Every structure is written in structure tokens, then in C-alpha cells.
Amino acid sequence: MRLHEFVVRRVLLLIPVMIGVAVFTFAVAQIIPGDPAALQCGDKCGLIVGYDDDGKPITAHQANRERLRLDDPVSLQFERYITDLINGDWGESQKNGRPVIDIIKTSAPVTLEMAFFSLMIAYPLGIFLGIISAVRQDRMFDHVSRFFAIAFVSLPIFWFAMLLQLYFATGPQVGGICDPIFGTEGGCFPIFDRHDQSYTYPLDGYHSLYPESGTGFHLIDSWFVTDAKLAELPSEFDTNRELFMDTLIHLVLPCSALGIASSGSLLRYMRASLLEVLHEDYVRTARAKGLSEFRVVVVHACRNAMVPIVTILGFSIGGAIGGAVLTESVFGIHGMGTVAVLGILQLEYQIVMGVTLLTSVIFLLSNLIVDIAYAIVDPRVRLE
Amino acid sequence: MRDWEEGRKDREESQKRLLESLSMSISNLGRGWKIYRRSLLAMLGLLMVLSVSMVAIFADEIAVQHPYRNLTDTEDKWSNNPDQQESPPFSEECSLREQKITTNPSSPLFSETVVAESVNKVSGSIAYGYYTDVLSITEIIKIENDRGYDQDISLITIDPDNSSLFVLSPDLYGNSSHYTGVWVTYLYENEDMSHWWLPEGYDTCIFGTNKEGHDVFSKVVYGARVSLTIGITVATLTVTIGTIVGSISGYYGGRIDEVIMRICDVFFAIPGLILAMAFVAAMRSVSSLTFPVWLGILLPVLMLAYFLNSHLSTTVLSGDERVSDQAMGMLMGNRSLLVGLLAFLFFVGWLPAFAWPDFFGVSHSRGWRLISSLVVIVLLVGIILADRRFVQKNSLDGALTRIGSSFDWTNPWRYLNFRTVVVFLSMAILFKLSGNEGPEIVLIKDFDKLWQVQFALIFTGWPGYARLIRGQVLYVKEMAFVEAAKSVGAPPSRIMFRHILPNAWAPLLVAFTLDIGGTILSASGLSFLGLGAAPYTAEWGLMISESRVAFQRAPHMMLYPGLAIAVTVLGFNLLGDGIRDVVDPKNRR
Question: Which of B225, B182, B204 is nearest to B520 (CA)?
Fold first, then answer.
């Protein structure tokens, strides 16, 4: 099979899954009890907003039902749901009428930013420790690092994040270990939100720190925010560099929590994969040639051992997004997870479904990219 | 019907075989244990799991207090002093209490003697109630008026006859400056806190108290019960569902396989925690899990029909062509229609507009439901158990003897027959469930938030097992012994349960063990987000979540529950790894 055939096939296979996810979100939204129309008008549902052709009064509730077209048959509603999804209309918040797509536009980049940086921590850490662990198989280091790998997989991530908050927080803390290390000014890292002053509110909107056309990624936006804009805000930052550093430093603890927790499984994968490779013939050949052990492991063995690690990248992204939900909640970051939790608690199901849909799209796309990359690197895969 | 004596030889033979297989499996276990023992980490895991299970089982014995019991009447106190909202570990607060005493003689609550009692909050799974404990006072420490100024300690004395009564002096209630009431702080004998395993006189809260005044240690101990229950229930049910779906998918293949695997893909496409959150959201207002009576009858009947089906196809359709066979063939040929009809009934039953409960009962009376369902069951049981040749001969001649011989006790294997077990189980379940009043059978009465979490996790968990089992079945299906079983005409169910699954259990066991840990993690995560256990439940994730308001001042509130989760999950993970080493020698590196 040629490469482009493989890609087309892989993309085509995605379509039924995407439709399935859409059916799922639609079904959940249907099953969920409660009347969206009633939720929208609240205690003003009884108000008469107009009269129909026969002169009968129309209440706000009825008008809402009409507007949301809730009385249509389910099949029609589903059809409209799908077309709306494709057209970029993902419903709206039932309380303040904000489009779900807007809410997601401001929250998704925050989560992605976090997931990206946590993987940047997890991969080097996991791979490096995995290599050492495999090379020193059954020695003390191996046992200790394997134990820690399993321990990190077993840690509840929210608890781990709170421990980091406890011990690395800014300011005078009970039992904090930061002060002696980082000097008297109290502390290592901020433990809350993405800035020292928050300008974002998860469901209500994006408050004016960055330009409207911003990407939503705090790091990028803070880099490009103009000094004039900063001056008119009641902020303590004089230049955008300061703001950028501030946003960067706010990422340290959440991303470490997420990254260290997910490096455990990577270590195990890397170790197993490298051990497998180290028993191959070509490694023995390389050793027989008299190459240094370092060269044998790093150049000959690791390259091949890395291939399965790359394939689980897609799954790691899914895992990181799932873990981000909990980490965001601990660190008060207004990403997709916070939005989803708030949506559930405030009965904003459109938002929950939007987040579910988007995470699955991200997950599927990242898996697709990984698969295609794998097919480019290893042509054997295409033969299946 | 054969005589009891006649079957003696058969019984002895079967007993011998049973013993043989038992001793063989014991020796297998011994070998596995030898391999398992080698790994220090695996032994550590086993130890952790065992100790957590012990704690969960004997929670009533180990816990010092009821987990929801308010040890110190702290809510009153905290309103005065917010800095000491949570008592640190090893606190003495458990034997110290502050109580408000009404001193206005014109108040209806006033009396000259006041009982020293603590108001305890006790919450069951849903209800959140109060009860009072009468305390035995040992020493009065101080008396404060409403503004917090110390008063003369002799204003209140302890009744010499009854150590749980305060006696107010006339100076107190005769003085109008005290009319707003006084606060008395006293030490009391905390009998509940002196426990068999605590050293004498060591009546402190071991892990401190939380801001409700609950003993954190007791909550952690009871939390083991909650978490293990969730973990094991969810893992067991997901394994069951996953095995059924996966084996159907793997065995039959083709279009069924394709459909099931695409459904699994959809489940895999959404990150687990977010999927579980969506399910929890969907089940928000479900308060009890019920299903219509007709479904309760239909399900066992369908199950029986499935086995009947496989019998028919092997005993009837393979014979020579006769009229009854042709009729049967027509029936079998149209079985998609039958299945469709059943599916239609199934889905229509969900619509409230359709008065389904009246379909089976003239009334909703429990007796009628019981009888009608039993009649259906007995009919089918009679046909299947007694007379597999009934359809062939198409007559009832000698049916009685055949029914009798089916209860032939000389053949010991008949009692162990899977079909028999299923029939009796479904009868028992039906008998039990029909006892509920109303047109619906209540499966879970208090479908509280914990149940919702469990259901969400079951719903999100089964595709993983389905895929695992499917792979195993595909692998085992190609082996020679399965071919052999097929060639001698064994029905699919028999091949599945007797030949394929026993050879595919190893990875399932490993996944099951690892999944218990994973489930505990996810459940505590959901509780942490506020989507899991109801407030004040002794659930570890929830305890951590509740500690967030003040965890930097009082880290003990989050440290111990988190440690408990970590130890439990780590135990199950290490155990799973150890088992993997035993059952799968390839991974032993």
C-alpha cells in the first residue's frame, strides 16, 4: 500500500468513529433529565411574551421551546445537531447564552498548553530513566526506579498536585521546603491560576487582557500583548516579558504534577522495549565489533526501542487531557476540565457535550498523526 | 428413573476425577506461588492488598469512632475562632467540648440542671441526621459568656450523683447580665475513644479531626470499605460484560464483530475520565435503578431461548427431513424476525406511553406476577431440562418419565450443568425480585451518587475488556482442540465456556487486578471533582476535596486519605504485576 492510500484509509476509518461520538453526545444530552428551555428562562418562564395566530398567549417557556425546537421529532433534532456541529454551532450556554464554541475556544488552548508541557517533562524523564533502568537491569537502581514508576502510576494525581502545592508554594507555608532553597522572598512557584491577576472566567468569557483575536494560548498571547494594553490594565506588569515569565512560571507546578505522574508508565514501556531490543542479534553484533557500551545502547538499541514509545504518544495525549481535568481543578486553571466540571455542576450540558466532543477529536487526530508518522518511519505498518 | 444404588459407581468415579483435578490445580497454584514469591515487590503488593482488605473488613473493630460522628462540638467553637478550625493530628480535642447553656429563666429551654451532651451528625448513605450523646464530665475548664469573657468557674458545678449533669448556681440564672447564655468548656470521659487496641489513656484522635469534627482516622478506615467495594464491584461487572461482549465478537466474527469493535472505538476515542463525567451528568437525577417487570421475565426467558436455540440447531435441524423439522427450520429461518420482535418489545417498553406492566398482569398484584413468571419459567425449564427429544418426536408420550429421568441423581454432573445453574439462578432472582411492589422491579433502591459513579465506570470500562477478550478468543479459536470440539458437534456456548474461555483467563486476571486499582483511582478522582460521593461520605477522594479549603494550614486532612489511596492502588498494581509474572512467563524480566 502506498503512503497516501494508507493515509486516506486511516482518515476514512475515523469518520464512523466521529459519527459514533456525535451520536453518543447527542444521546447523553437527550437522556439527561431537565428541560433546557425551562433552565434558560429560570423563574420568568410564566411571563407572556406574545400571542400566537389564534390569540392564545405564549409564555417565555413556550417561546424558548420553540426557539430551541425541542418539540421536533428526535430524528430531526439529531439531523440538525449534526449539521450544526459541522457548521460550528455547538449550542450555547443555557444561563448566559454564550456560544459553547467560544467557551471552548478560550479554555481548550489552556488545557493543550498544559498537556504539551507536561508531556515535554514526562517523555525525557521517562525515557531517560527507562534507559538507565534497562541497562542496569536487576541492580539497585532498577528496582528503585521500577518501584517509583509503579508508585507514580498509582498516585492519585490530584493528591500529588496538592502535595506539590503544599511544599513548593509561594509564601510562608506550613512545612514548605522552598524557603531555604530559594531564598527569603518566600517561595518557589505560584500555585494558583495562570497569572498573578486573573482575567479569565471560565463560563462568562475572556476578560480583556489579550486581544480578541488572541490564540488563547497564554504563553503566546502574553508574548504578543502590547505594552500600551498592559498600561491601561490595572496590572502590576510593566512589560510583556514580565507577563510572559509570569505565565511560564505558573505552568511549572501543574505541568510537573502531570508530567511526573505520567512519566511512570513511560519508564516502564521504555524499559521493557529496550530490554527486548538489547537481546537482539544486531546489538550483539555491535558489541562484538567492540563498540563502547554507550554507543551500543544509545545509537544502536535506543533508536529501535523508541519506536513503540512514539506510538503510545497518542494515548499519552488522551491521558494527559484526562489528568489535566484533575490538575486544573487543583490549580484553579480555567481549562477544559474546569469548564466541564462547572458545566456538570451548573447543569450546562451543552458545554459538557462540547468538551467531550472536542477532547475526542483531539485524541483521534493525535492518534492519526502518530499513526501516519509511524507509517512513514516504518513502511511495514502500511502492509497490514 | 434409576435407583440411587445403581449410580454409586458413577458417583465414585466423578468424585475421583474431581479430587484429581483439585490436586492438580493445587499443585499448579503451588508452582505459581513459588514464582510469585521470588519478587519482593509482588510480595509487598500482596501484603498491602491484604492489609487494606483486613482494614476494610474489620473497619467496625478498628475504627475508633463512627466516621460521621462529630467528636468535638467544633462548629460552635469555630465561629469564635476560625484559626483553629481543624485540629491537628494527635489532638486532645476529642475529649474536650464546649457547650452552650441557656441561662435565661424565662426561656422555655431553661432548666437548673443541664445534661452534658454532644450533638453528633450521623449520615447514612443519603440522609443526614443528628443524634445526641450523653457525656460524662470529668472537669470543667472554663466558663465564658456570650462575648467570650471568662466567668467564675464556680458558677456551674457537676452533679455529685450524676456526672453527666451540670448544676447551675442561682448566681448564674439570677443575674440578668448572663441572660444571653454562657459557654462552658469541659473535659469528658470519652469512652468511645478508648479502644481495645489503643494504649490505656490514649484517647486522642490519631489523624486529627476534620472541619466537621469527624475523626479522620475513622473516616480513612471506613473509606477502605467504600473504595474496595467500588473497585471490586466495578471490576467484576466490567469483566463480566466485557467477557460476554468480547467473546461474542471474537467467536462469531463478521458483521457482529465489526459493529462491536466500532462501538468500542467510540468509547476509546473519549478520554476515560471525561467519558465518566458525561455519564455521571446523564445519571444525575436517577434515584433508584428499576426496570419493568416484563423485562425481568423476558431476560431469563431470552437466556433460556438462547440455549434452546443451540439445542434445536444441533438436535433437530441436523436430522433427516420431516414435517416437524421443516416447521422448525422455518422458525429458525425467521429467527431474525423473532429477535427483532423481542427487541421491539424491549425498546417499546421504555416508552412510558405504552402501558406495559399490564401486559403480563391482570393486576399489579405481586402474587400474579410471581405466578405468571414462574409458569413461564417452569414451562421452559420443563421442556429444556426434561425433554430434548420433545421437538423431535412431537408428542408427549412418555414425557413424564423423561422429565423424571432428567432429575436423575445417579448422574452427578447434571447438577453442575451450566444450564441448570442458569435456570435455577434466574428462578431465584425472579422469585426475589417479584416481591417488590409496583409495576417495576427495583434493582438498586438507593441509587445514590456512589452507585452513579460505579455505573459510569462500568459503562466506560467494558470496551477495554471486550477488546482484550476478543484478541484472546481469536487466538485460541484457531487451536486444534477447538476444531476438534467443533467437529464433534459441540454447540457454540459449550465451546465458548468449556474450551475457549478457560484458556484465555490469564491476561483477564491480570487486567482485573490492575483494573481494581485503576477504578479506585478514577472513583476518587470523580469524588474529588465533586461528582462522586455525597458530601461527608467517608470516601478518600472526597475527604481530600473537602480538605482543600485549608490544606495548607492543616495538611493532615489531605495527607492520610491520599496516602490511603496511594497504598491501596499501589498494592493492587504490584499484585497485578506479580500475577502477570506468574501467568505470563514471557514478561518475566
Answer: B225
**pLDDT tops 70 at residue A300:** yes
> Using a CB-CB distance cutoff of 8 angstroms, which residues of chain B are in contact with residue A355?
274
Count helices and strands in chain A by DSSP H and E runs: 17, 4
What is the per-residue pLDDT across A229-266, written as a single tens digit (0 to 9) for each? 666 665 666 777 777 887 888 888 899 999 998 898 89
What ipTM describes this predicted complex? 0.86
CB contact under 8 A, A356 and B517: no
Domain count, chain A: 1
Contact call for A158 and B525, based on CB within 8 A = yes
**Is the CB of A128 inside 8 Å of chain B's CB atoms?**
no
CATH number of the domain within which A142 lies: 1.10.3720.10
Instruction: Output the pTM of the full model.
Output: 0.78
What does each C-alpha distance from A262 to A154, A266, A302, B187 come to in angstroms?
Answer: 10, 7, 20, 49
In sequence order, the 6+-apart residues with CB closer than 8 A to the CB of B371 are none
**A312 phi/psi in degrees, rounded to 5:** -85, 5
| Any domain includes A14 | no
Locate the DSSP E strands across chain A: 48-51, 57-59, 200-201, 205-206
Answer whether residue A19 is part of any domain.
no
**Does residue A67 sit within a domain?**
no
Asked if the C-beta of A74 comes within 8 angstroms of chain B's C-beta atoms, the answer is no
* Residue A57 belongs to some domain of the structure: no
Contact A321 B274 (CB under 8 A): yes
The cell for A304 is: 529501535
Contacts of B548 in chain A (CB under 8 A): 162, 330
Interval B443-448 mean pLDDT: 67
Structural domain including A196 reads 100-377
Residues in chain A with CB shorter than 8 Å from the CB of B263 are 20
Smallest CA-to-CA distance from A40 within A4, A68, A80 is with A68
DSSP secondary structure string, A328-365?
HHHHT--SHHHHHHHHHHTT-HHHHHHHHHHHHHHHHH
Considering only alpha carbons, which residue of chain A is nearest residue B520?
A: A156
* CA atoms of B580 and B561, how far apart (whole Å): 29
